[in-house]
């Protein structure tokens, strides 16, 4: 699932073939090659649908990001801040819950696989809070585990959306806008 997602983000495809059980498999990855500038007769690779999506504006939205990798927090925070969101970060579930006592996010974006308490445990604790304390905050699970069982587990735990890493910044912004009832697009 991760390879398929990465290849599709680059405009490619993945196929698998096998002559039968116990006879191995052949996986073929096809990626577009950009034409050199000014090359006659070569068409550029088609652009992904998300690249042609309107710029997503999240002005004034308060987003709490939770991930145990500082680099991921910095990257996501930068993406969202450029779209106008006010972002707070937490490195684990306990830190995220502490944020809820002083700041009410409009949306929670959390990794699932974290040491100690995972994202599913975090969202169950958030859902146990009264609504006035953030218990009904829209929540997005972001994880490297993109299989159907992982998605089902995240949604059953209380998340409204599940995104597999690597996450496209426009897709993340569109999901946030959708969960918070905004069109998100620039006027």
Description:
- The chain contains 6 helices and 7 strands.
- With 187 residues, it is an alpha/beta fold.
- Mean pLDDT is 82; it is low at 35-53.
- Helix 3 packs parallel to helix 4.
- It starts with a helix and ends in an 8-residue tail after the last helix.
Strand segment count: 7
| Residues in helix, % | 25-40%
Average pLDDT rating: 82
Largest sheet: 5 strands, parallel
Please list the strands of the largest sheet in the order they lie side by side. Answer: 4-3-5-6-7
The residue ranges in which pLDDT falls below 50 over 5 or more consecutive positions are 35-53
- Looking at the structure, what is the overall shape? globular
What is the succession of H and E elements?
HEEEHEHEHEHEH
**Rounded radius of gyration (Å):** 19 Å
Q: What's the SSE blueprint?
A:
Elements: H1 2-9, E1 13-17, E2 26-30, E3 62-66, H2 70-82, E4 86-90, H3 93-100, E5 107-111, H4 119-127, E6 139-143, H5 148-157, E7 161-164, H6 169-179
Parallel strand pairs: 3-4, 3-5, 5-6, 6-7
Antiparallel strand pairs: 1-2
Give short descriptive properties of this protein.
alpha/beta; 187 residues; 7 strands; 5-stranded parallel sheet; globular
How would you concisely characterize the structure shown here?
The chain has 187 residues and is of the alpha/beta class.
């Amino acid at each position: 699932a991760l390879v398929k997602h990465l290849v599709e983000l680059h405009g490619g495809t993945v196929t698998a073939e096998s002559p039968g059980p116990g006879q191995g498999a052949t996986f073929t990855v096809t990626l577009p090659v950009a034409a050199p500038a000014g090359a006659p007769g070569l068409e550029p690779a088609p652009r992904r649908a998300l690249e042609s999506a309107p710029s997503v504006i999240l002005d004034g939205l308060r987003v709490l990001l939770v991930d145990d990798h500082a680099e991921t927090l910095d990257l996501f925070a930068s993406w969202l801040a450029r779209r106008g969101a006010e972002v707070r970060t937490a490195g684990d579930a306990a830190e995220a819950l502490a944020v809820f006592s002083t700041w009410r996010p409009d949306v929670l974006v959390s990794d699932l696989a974290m040491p100690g308490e995972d994202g599913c445990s975090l969202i169950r604790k958030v859902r146990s809070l009264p609504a006035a304390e953030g218990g009904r905050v829209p929540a997005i699970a972001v994880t490297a585990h993109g299989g159907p069982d992982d998605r089902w587990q995240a949604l059953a735990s209380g998340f409204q959306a599940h995104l597999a890493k690597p996450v496209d910044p426009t897709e993340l912004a569109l999901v946030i806008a959708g969960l918070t009832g905004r069109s998100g697009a620039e006027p």
